[in-house]
């Protein structure tokens, strides 16, 4: 039977490492296979979704009014199957990784579609097996103890990587249940305490440091827009760049592992070019976090701060669309957030609670009564979770999630969503 340690390693494999449950030799190569499948029943009760911020990161998804929704869906992790091939050749460790991440969505799920005429986006049926061919990980690496390691391809980003990897809802659902069933994952605590690390095309270099210290820096595929389709659909003032920027993005991560505790810090930087108005926008973000264990008790805290960063996906909603020709300093929105978490294990059952908050400030050229739809002000979420290891490979999950979201527009009520999620996740 596979150990719990290897099950945990398989979670990391889904999020960007190469740990595997099954290894076998083929000549000079070690081949590895791992995978995971999960499914959850979610029941969400939504109040005041007309808060004006319609997005997959909104408290109630794209659904307006006071509504309930149920779904049988994936949690924060999609399903995945991961393959690696590694070898030691001419003094170098060489490795290749291919991962495919299918999901459970079908035409009964809800996705956003523009309504036209300045109206909010509407919920429509999703496609069968939506994003079934999502290849989040496809990369190669090479290096050794003297030179460090170079990775080329698509993999998880470095900025806020540790926040999502240590989020207890990675095994469960978190926010985004019910209304977001057709995107193959929920959102966990993304947008409620940390920024999504994303799976990005990259060239990343990990320094040859001591075993306890990990230092990595990476050059990333340039982002196409300030904000993206999510921002455009949300009406929250994403700024189109009019084309692909020529400047790559940069991520960095430093982490020190003390054994029962670890601390980390990371950064992100990305410039965007509005080729129509000849303006350059810049997104920057910084993260500090740590985790410590006291026997069965484990505590984690992480926080971020940024300019032009947004609160959920880097760059989305990070800039105002008001008088953009005025330049970066006027259009840039500041944001910050934190996630606090405590878990306690009794036998094969882990009990946990986490609470996160993300806040977005108006730009210098904006007012709460300005044009356009409402701009996000604050998102908070609290999750109570129970995670029972029925076998070393199979975990039964129960969560209760309370989420709230407000905007800067006066007179709009705060939206609320309460979700019950019950399901299971298996690793192999």
Topology summary:
Elements: H1 4-15, E1 22-26, E2 29-47, E3 68-73, E4 80-89, E5 92-100, E6 110-113, E7 122-125, E8 137-144, E9 148-156, H2 161-165, E10 199-206, E11 213-220, H3 229-234, E12 249-257, E13 261-274, E14 279-294, E15 297-307, H4 328-331, E16 334-346, E17 349-360, E18 376-389, E19 394-407, E20 415-427
Antiparallel strand pairs: 1-2, 2-3, 2-4, 2-20, 4-5, 5-8, 6-7, 8-9, 9-10, 10-11, 11-12, 12-13, 13-14, 14-15, 15-16, 16-17, 17-18, 18-19, 19-20
Low-confidence stretches: 1-10, 13-20, 107-131, 226-243
Fraction of residues in helix: under 10%
Q: Return the structural class.
A: mainly beta
Strand content: over 45%
- Looking at the structure, the CATH topology is Porin
Q: How far apart, in Å, are the first and last alpha carbons? A: 10 Å
Q: What integer is the average pLDDT?
A: 81
- Discrete helix count: 4
**DSSP E strands, number:** 20
* Main sheet: strands, sense, barrel: 16 strands, antiparallel, barrel
- Helix and strand succession? HEEEEEEEEEHEEHEEEEHEEEEE
Supply the CATH architecture: Beta Barrel
Question: What distinguishing features does this structure have?
Answer:
428 residues; 6% helix; mainly beta; disordered N terminus; single chain; Porin; globular; two-stranded antiparallel sheet
């Amino acid at each position: 039977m596979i150990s719990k340690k290897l099950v945990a390693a398989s979670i990391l494999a889904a999020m960007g490492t190469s740990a595997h449950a099954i290894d076998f030799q083929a000549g000079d190569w070690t081949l590895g296979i791992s995978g995971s499948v999960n499914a959850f029943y979610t029941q969400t009760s939504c109040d005041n979704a007309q808060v004006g911020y319609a997005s997959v990161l909104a408290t109630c998804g794209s659904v307006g009014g006071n509504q309930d929704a149920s779904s049988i869906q994936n949690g924060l992790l999609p399903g995945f199957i991961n393959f690696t091939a590694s070898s030691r050749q001419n003094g170098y460790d060489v490795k290749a990784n291919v991962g495919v991440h299918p999901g459970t969505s079908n035409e009964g799920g809800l996705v956003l579609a523009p309504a036209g005429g300045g109206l909010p986006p509407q919920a429509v049926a999703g496609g069968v097996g939506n994003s079934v061919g999502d290849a989040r990980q496809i990369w190669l690496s090479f290096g050794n103890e003297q030179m460090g390691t170079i990775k080329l391809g698509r993999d998880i980003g470095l900025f806020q990587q540790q926040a999502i990897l240590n989020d207890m809802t990675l095994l469960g659902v978190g926010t985004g249940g019910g209304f977001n069933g057709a995107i193959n994952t929920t959102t966990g605590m993304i947008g409620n305490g940390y920024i999504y690390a994303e799976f990005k095309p990259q060239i990343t270099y990990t320094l040859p440091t001591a075993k306890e210290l990990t230092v990595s820096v990476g050059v990333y595929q340039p982002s196409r827009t300030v904000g993206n389709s999510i921002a455009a659909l949300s009406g929250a003032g994403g700024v189109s760049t009019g084309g692909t920027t020529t400047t790559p993005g940069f991520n960095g991560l430093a982490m020190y592992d003390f054994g029962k505790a670890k601390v980390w810090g990371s950064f992100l930087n990305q410039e965007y070019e509005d080729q129509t108005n000849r303006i350059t926008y810049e997104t920057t973000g910084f993260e500090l976090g740590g985790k410590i264990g006291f026997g069965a008790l484990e505590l984690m805290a992480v926080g971020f701060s940024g300019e032009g960063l947004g609160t959920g996906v880097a760059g989305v909603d990070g800039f105002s669309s008001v008088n953009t020709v005025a330049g970066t300093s006027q259009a840039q929105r500041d944001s910050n957030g934190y996630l606090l978490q405590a878990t306690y294990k009794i036998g094969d059952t882990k009990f946990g609670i986490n609470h996160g908050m993300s806040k977005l400030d108006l730009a210098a050229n904006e007012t709460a009564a300005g044009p356009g739809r409402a701009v996000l002000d604050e998102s908070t979420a609290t999750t109570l979770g129970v995670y029972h290891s029925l076998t070393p490979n199979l975990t039964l999950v129960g969560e209760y999630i309370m989420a709230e979201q407000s905007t800067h527009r006066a007179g709009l009520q705060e939206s609320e969503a309460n979700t019950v999620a019950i399901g299971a996740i298996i690793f192999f």
